[in-house]
Amino acid sequence: MRVALMVTCINDALYPSTGQAVVRLLRRLGVEVDFPQAQTCCGQPMVNTGYLDEAVPVVRTFVDAFAGYDAVVTPSGSCAGSARHQHSIVARRSGDPALQEAVAEVGPKVYELSEFLIDVLKVTDVGAYYPHRVTYHPTCHSLRMLGVGDRPRRLLEAVRGIRLVDLPQADQCCGFGGTFAVKNADTSIAMGADKARHIRETGAEIVVAGDNSCLTHIGGVLSRQRSGVRTVHLAEILASTEARSIEGTLR
Amino acid sequence: MSGTFVGMPAFPTAAREALADSQLRHNLAHATGTIRAKRARVVAEVPDWEELRLAGAAVKERALLDLDTQLVRLEETLTANGATVHWARDAAEANAIVASIAKTHAAEEVVKVKSMVTQEIGLNEALAAEGIAAWETDLAELIVQLGDDLPSHILVPAIHRNRAEIREIFRSRMAAAGRPAPSDLTDEPAVLAAAAREHLREKFLRAKVGISGANFAVAETGTLVVVESEGNGRMCLTLPEVLVSVVGIEKVVSRWEDLDPLLRLLPRSSTGERMNPYTSTWSGIHAQEEGPSDGPQEVHVVLLDNGRTRALADEVGRQALRCIRCSACLNVCPVYERTGGHAYGSVYPGPIGAILNPLLKGVGHDDQTDSLPYASSLCGACFEVCPVRIDIPSVLVDLRAQVVDAHRGGVPKPEAAAMKGAAYVLGRSPRLSALERLTGLGMRFARRFGPTAWTGARDLPDAPGESFRAWWQRTDGGRKDDA
């Protein structure tokens, strides 16, 4: 099976440790991933802001980079959702039948990390060790666009040493929403403040999620509040072992 | 559309004001949280809820795909039942029709069933301009009307008010509108409801003309349906001699049996009840073999377009016309919960309002309407609860593209220029790679020159020493040096 890592633009530029964690985790599970150098972004920032024409070259680059792989794995529910559900809209807009075909070919092969681990590799216990008090925030696109359900939770429950605490109103949006975070900054921050309050109520040291975009927003609020709560991507917890632990970042 | 919300600012500005109102935030969080929990409980009781949603969406979709035929059929059956059918292209035409019917009967006042469509067309204001007083009889609408306020929720228009505020409105405003509130009025819900009942009873018994909307219109039988909780609607539908119903053309369903899934979906989705207390149906005039007929002696139905055919022509957006106004999407929306309904500047607030208003009015004409498709984090909670499966997030994204396209040409605004720049950089990976070397610099710049929309209340992450792609190249994917 030829597997490609779609690291996503935000992880590439701001959170390389998340991409590195995916590589290490999958290598430990016996899967060598390729990193197609031509990849850039899924185009979601343009699509969700209404700039479909601007998304066309980005989606073209995406399908060129990932053509021919059996599976494309990505540490982002949002970007997986974009590839699976939005690329067809962009391709239709382009009026290019070849792009429409390529999108229909690549899209269904894109897996969010927890889907890839549980549905493709059929593994729940990935052999991770993480001795921390952790609360899990299910991100909206992984939950409602992809329907990952309790997959991330099952993976986390199998981690040795972890103390997983329930997050109140967990399925409420954190308020990030891409360009929503700046176009409607006041509403976004009000939502983020409530999310941060619920996180702090759990007494967790760490909040984990499958999307670093949401964690940037949540972590930004938690950091401004000097809460001491750290944000860590799901991949980094799953990649952690006794020999090598990731403490997360205070954003 | 309605004159009631004219001059509202664009959503981000209106939202900022609402967010600063801590009493409003408290009222909304409490009320939406309560309805949300009730809905979740009663929906969980129905094992075939998802099939029911599919059935509900299907009957509405079928009627919309065949709307021209269904409407003509509805006109025929209504007319055969003794009703008079009027067609209105827009709010002005509909208001003029209703006013002229009221004037024919020399009515100085009318009683109203709670109705979204008459709010949409600003009927009360139009009638007032003709010297006709239109009295809202739904408890919450009465609160809004007496308070000289605007509705902020489809189902519970006074959701932004608490009991203490309602008591004050009744105490100070009821007298000017009719029977005053009792002097010992408390803020107990039962006491407030009793005061409203006393106040409204006189109006029910006096009014010669009743006005309603309709939840559904059955083409097969020429039947209109109103679903309500209080019974005040039924009073308006049965007591006055003349009944005028203003009905959006998307309310039509083909057959009587189509009501089955819709009447099961609606109460659980809207009030979180298994069944609503009152379902009134009427098919024209109720003819008796002997003596005068029961109920209204004269029945009018005004079939209203007001942008609905525009929405129907929108391939992605037309599904919004399936909406049965349950307001489940408002109650689960994290944006609505924090800003309330007024920020949307329309009688249709929340997620459905964010798509319905632009679809009815068209985009590219005013900033307020154009801001609505962006009033969402695209979290998808609305789609999940919608009883007729309107994919609101997808319609929002499509409308955003329509807004952007409407403003193409000329000098691009900063956002458009930024998106063009991003498209250039993200079109080819070497360009992205080059830009990533400047990430640290960019972050330092952003911190220094804040507060921006981001950094006003959020810290930025630290930039890493190198990008992922630089790490991959340096270490051969971590094989050389997995440090």
From TrEMBL, chain A:
Residues in Cysteine-rich domain copies: 3-80, 134-218
Alphabetized GO MF terms: oxidoreductase activity
GO cellular component: cytosol
Listed InterPro entries: Cys_rich_dom
Top-level lineage group: Bacteria
One Pfam family hit: CCG
PANTHER family: LACTATE UTILIZATION PROTEIN A, UNCHARACTERIZED PROTEIN YKGE
Name listed for the protein in its UniProt record: Fe-S oxidoreductase
UniProtKB/TrEMBL annotation, chain B:
Native source species: Nocardioides luteus
UniProt key word Mitochondrion: no
GO terms, molecular function: 4 iron, 4 sulfur cluster binding; metal ion binding
Gene3D superfamilies: Alpha-helical ferredoxin, NagB/RpiA/CoA transferase-like
PROSITE patterns reported in the protein's UniProt record: 4FE4S_FER_1
Protein name, UniProt field: Iron-sulfur cluster-binding protein
Keywords from the UniProt entry: 4Fe-4S, Electron transport, Iron, Iron-sulfur, Metal-binding, Repeat, Transport
Top-level lineage group: Bacteria
Gene Ontology terms: biological process: lactate metabolic process
Domain LUD intervals: 73-304
Domain 4Fe-4S ferredoxin-type span(s) in chain numbering: 320-390
